[in-house]
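pinning this so it doesn't scroll away 📌
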Amino acid sequence: MTSPAPDALFAGLRVIDVASYIAAPTAAMILGDLGSDVIKIEPVGDGDPYRAIHDTPALPQSGTDHCWITDSRSKRSLTLNLKADEGRAIMLKLVAGCDVFITNQPFPVRGRLRLGYEHLSPLNPRMIFASLTAYGEQGPERDRGAFDGVAYWGRSGLEDLIRSRGSVPAPSAPGQGDHPTGVTLYAAIVTALYRRQLTGQGSHVHTSLLANGFWSNACLGAAALAGADFEEWRSRPADRPGTFTRNVYEASDGRFLQFLMARSDEEHENALRVAGLGKMLDDERFADADSRWDNVLPIIEAMTKAIGRRPATDWIESFEAAGVPCSLVRYTHEMGDDEQAKINDVLIAPQTDDVGVPWIINHPVRVEGIAEAGAIRPPAVGEHTDEILDELGYETEAIDALRRDGVV
């Protein structure tokens, strides 16, 4: 593994990652990319179960641990049995010298292992304790566990919204809410680090999948809180509020086009003309924006038939030439072909040949002039156990004994 330059922004910062799966470990990964020494604590044996998710029916098969590669780079791995007294002693040594402690362990587990903020903060008052939960730090559901598909997607109303009239709610893609939630936790940690710089005091920071789901659905959620009439909204033609440009249209080659960025009356009228539907503008039902709003369904039906007669690339050229923004709905498997994403480091190439994939999806935090670790190989299970224990002062014989006893 390689590491950022010694002058990286967070060089010298130590982060302890006692978390699993996606959201909380992703926050640790971003800190690691920016120079922190991130020590990931994993169970003895197979390690974080997220290592194996790539091999489940929930995801397309690639032959690589692509999820782990994406979310767990820029870390060192220490396997540790936190139920053993010796394992807890090692953990407490790490806590005493860390800057950030990240966990998403359920509160009952934190209580049993004495890994809550109330247990650890007396050991290190300058530590930033970062907590990720499903439903928040307080209330009757604080102990409930949940994945993002439940607490972020389902609970917030997003799952209910992403469907056409008459269809069932749509489940989220794996990690869809976890990744933005991880960025939120990172933001909270960095905010607390700045406060510590000013005051010398540590902090307890936290976020939840519930909070991030509500935040993601804030536009429509705010309407609900303001007493909006959702029954009227849902009953609009084709279940599409607004204009015909809110619809998605299938071309003759099976690809889909969207016109969300076509917003002006001129763009709407030119869209109809390019589609060969200019005569509709002579009909009083479609002559101006208000009438098209009130009679949107016939326009959608006509546009659907028209777009279906030619392939997507032909349509895109025709619409763009007429000044009508038209976008292709990309397939996920086409991500690697997106040159714009590569130019802007949304996709980054591995720095070494041992990563196993040609491109890695980068985290979205970009700061010019800041050194980053980049696309490097994530750690193997317990790869740095001996190294970290040596740094804590354990002799070789003691490390061997810990391993024989199943502590590490």
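📌 and the second one:
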Amino acid sequence: MVPDSSELAARAAEWAGHGFDEGRAALLEDFAAWLIAEAMPAGGLGPREGGRLWGRHIADSLTFASAWEVPPLEILDVGSGVGLPGIPLAILWPETEVTLLDRGGRRIRLLRRAIQVLGLTNVHFAQGDVFDVADTWVGITFRGSVKPPEAVGLSARMLVPGGVSVVGLSRREDPPERGRDLIGVAEALGLAARIERVPSEVLDGAAWLLIMTAGE
């Protein structure tokens, strides 16, 4: 197993099918440093997460990019917390407009600080509850922010025709429970859905993603 390092991020981006150059790598290093220096002391991440920051958080975020063959025009990152997966995806795709949505004022302040420190001009933030969002979106990401069945319903309501959403399901070797049920619900709501396994050799263990596409 590769030790927790930026090499995992490069591996995840390659697996997802997207370019990863030295400039992006340097920005991700800066983001990792900010997470340790500011986000963790503020409670944005647990005190034990520093030892698995790349595999469990940054590289994991980059695997969400596998849902798109080409970078989407925009992404809404629901329940972004300290910017995961939104900020790593914004670094990977500098032409994609990424909106980080969170309910907590403290987390919004952290997100504002992260955007400032990293100098990301394609990242925006908004405070609010996703269930109150009336807009439609080209891309949506959910990484542990709402329950998967709720993410399916939100995707059906919020995606534009042809839009794509990605839900992080689990980080276990075995397939996620109720995976087929989630696909069935998504299809009943007019979404094409599949569950994708991120191989254990890409991160620090297997991961599972639910990817949904709205009908044209």
